[in-house]
UniProtKB/TrEMBL annotation:
Transmembrane segments: none annotated. InterPro entries: Endo/exonu/phosph_ase_sf (IPR036691), Swc5/CFDP1/2 (IPR027124). This is Craniofacial development protein 2-like.
């Protein structure tokens, strides 16, 4: 097996919608918004459940939630290097990770806050874009961070992840060798003479061939194997 290093890039494009306070969110439309989010997680659950456990899964998305710093009670699915406090949407991310036995990759790598903040708008600095993988594959990831100065989508910053996979080299199937007779070489005198001598030896010095054709044919095939009229061909 040979290690192959791959890079994962998370880019999220969103529409600017301005800021809203917690009080505003608790007003008109909040219940509908919550239903939409619950529907999203339900559908994502269905997708994950349709994937065989043996297959590697990496999810990168703007989950619009804060998983927060620390991991008390959630050590199985996340590290301690989040940003700020957890909110309801962040709890949904953590709950999903627990249901699907996944890990929130961003939180396992100690970085300066500048390399953890994925969203900047005005005075707001937070972490809402996450990369998740199966917990069993977490050991394959050696780094995850925000690239400072790179912003290919409005307000959201680029998140990169370094993952090393062990790739099994496919074994070549064994090549079968088939022997074929080059009867046309009997046109050459040296080949013809060699074959004639071997055939006579096999027949005990007789010049006349046996009446039994099957016996004669078998003798011809056996003795011809040591002559130049035989060759090996790859199939």
């Amino acid at each position: 097996m040979a290690p192959v290093e791959i890079g994962l890039l998370l880019v999220e494009e969103v529409e600017e919608g301005g800021e809203c306070t917690d009080k505003e969110r608790r007003g008109k439309g909040y219940e509908y918004e919550l239903e939409e989010k619950e529907r999203f997680w339900s559908e994502l659950d269905e997708v994950m459940e349709s994937i065989p456990m043996g297959e590697r899964v990496v999810i990168g998305a703007d989950f619009n939630g804060h998983v927060g710093e620390g991991n008390t009670g959630d050590e199985v699915v996340m590290g301690t290097f989040g940003v700020k406090e957890r909110n309801l949407e962040g709890q949904m991310v953590v709950d999903f990770a627990k249901r699907m036995d996944m890990a929130v990759v961003n939180t396992y790598f100690q970085k300066r806050e500048e390399h953890r903040v994925t969203y900047k708008s005005g005075g707001r600095r937070t972490q809402v874009d996450y990369i998740l993988c199966r917990r069993g594959n977490l050991k394959e990831i050696s780094d995850c961070k925000v690239v400072v100065g790179e912003s290919v989508a409005r307000q959201h910053r680029m998140v990169v992840c370094r993952m090393t996979l062990m790739v099994c080299k496919k074994k070549r199937s064994k090549i079968e060798i088939e022997k074929k007779t080059k009867w046309w070489k009997l046109k050459k005198e040296e080949c013809c003479e060699e074959f004639r001598q071997k055939l006579r030896q096999a027949l005990g010095g007789q010049v006349v061939l046996p009446d039994d054709w099957e016996t004669t044919a078998e003798v011809i095939r056996e003795k011809g194997a040591g002559c130049a009229i035989w060759k090996e061909e790859r199939r």
